[in-house]
Design brief:
Largest sheet: 4 strands, mixed
Radius of gyration: 33 Å
Strand order of the largest sheet: 12-13-17-16
Helix content: 10-25%
Number of helices: 10
Oligomer: single chain
Strand content: 25-35%
Order of helices and strands: HHHHHEEHEHEEEEEEEEEEHEEEEHH
């Protein structure tokens, strides 16, 4: 398997990028490669998954710290820098359920980075979170909708119910570590007695020994499944915001709770409208007679066209407000406003008669059009 790319390189960043820079880069690339915008494009789909994986690590302070120091091995114990993944669950690494970087530190320093307590390895562990994305139209984000997302998730094995044992059998408590998954060793040095904690070599940190493993999960107690989930998108959600689906992430270990699923929203640009918070902005072209004489306009809104009367002598760039025609508040309680900026357009393709009428209008208002034929003739006689 090809070596994995650096996560910072995937997001187009350099090491040490801030949380805001990471989030901004993820939004841009998630929007660029989202499968909804590239149906059937396997390359775009692969890049979208790669971007999601990079963001899942770099957006988590703990994972980011481990990745910055140890690279892929810091967040995925199954990763082999010489050639990808090997053994065990293959692509399951980095989910905390199959390894604890803290044990590396505890074996040297007797605790520290991961706690290193004797009960950590075999105790309940919460599952890791999953980050995925969904693409919405402008209207779907404004008024809310229901979307379906597909994720790859680690779940409790349905045959052994997480025990890792074949049906009718039970695991034996490891006699070497007494079920803790770790062993403590002492070494006398010139500085005194040094104590260190390491993974139990007999049970490999599980605290138990399975003599007859479940055939479905091979004794791990967990399996990977593709899952389709329905996501309720709330009205008023904005580009880059996330929905937290509690307990829909990876399954926990040793009876621990499942992690959460974070669905990050990408909102597609609208042909006419733009948005800032709960306000909607629209630029409306009007003719010179409409601007000069005023009148009733039919203005597009998210709810459909509405009538709005503009006054006489309306200037280009004037802004009018339509109350309650903006984006609903995300937490309820009304809507924002729509702001309409009028832009006076210059007519094209005028007939000779229309041009003459405009000249007469210019003379009546005292404006110079630069097309006064008589003045031109006098100028040439000089």
């Amino acid at each position: 398997m090809a070596e994995k790319r650096d996560y910072y390189e995937v997001l187009g960043l350099t090491k040490g990028a801030s949380e805001e820079e990471i989030k901004k880069a993820f939004r841009k690339l998630a929007k660029q490669y989202h499968p909804d915008l590239h149906p059937g494009d396997k390359d775009a789909e692969a890049k979208f998954k790669e971007v999601n994986e990079a963001y899942e690590v770099l957006s988590d302070a703990d994972k980011k710290a481990r990745y910055d120091q140890f690279g892929h091995a810091g967040v995925d114990p199954n990763y082999n820098a010489g050639g990808g993944y090997g053994g065990g669950f293959g692509g399951f690494g980095g989910f905390g359920d199959f390894g604890d970087l803290g044990d590396i530190f505890s074996s040297v320093f007797g605790g520290g980075f991961g706690g290193g307590t004797r009960s950590n390895r075999s105790g309940p562990r919460q599952g890791e979170r999953i980050v995925t994305g969904v693409s919405l139209t402008f209207e779907e984000a404004a008024f809310g909708c229901t979307k379906e997302v597909q994720i790859s998730r680690i779940e409790t094995c349905d045959e052994c119910h997480g025990s890792g044992c074949a049906e009718g059998t039970t695991a034996e408590v490891c006699s070497n570590c007494r079920g803790t998954g770790t062993v403590v060793t002492q070494q006398r040095t010139a500085f005194g007695v040094m104590q260190s904690t390491s993974e139990c070599p007999s049970c490999h940190g599980k605290g138990k020994i399975i003599h007859q493993p479940c055939q479905r999960c091979k004794g791990n107690g967990l399996i990977r499944r593709n899952k389709k989930l329905t996501v309720d998108i709330p009205a008023g959600i904005d580009d880059g915001q996330s929905i937290n689906m509690h307990g829909q992430g990876h399954a926990g270990r040793n009876g621990g709770p499942s992690g959460d699923l974070y669905v990050t929203v990408t909102v597609q640009p609208h042909e006419y409208f733009t948005r800032d918070g709960n306000a909607v902005f629209y630029e409306m072209p009007i003719s010179f007679p409409q601007a000069a004489l005023g009148g009733e306009l039919e203005v597009p809104t998210l709810d459909g066209p509405v009538k709005y009367k503009i006054p006489e002598a309306t200037q280009t760039g004037s802004v009018f407000r339509l109350r309650g025609k903006g984006i609903p508040n995300l937490r309820g309680g009304g809507r924002g406003d729509q702001y309409v900026t009028v832009k006076v357009t210059t007519p094209k393709g005028l007939t000779p008669e229309q041009k003459e009428l405009l000249r007469q209008f210019a003379e009546l208002t005292g404006d110079s059009t630069g097309t006064d034929h008589k003045a031109g003739k006098k100028h040439r006689k000089r």
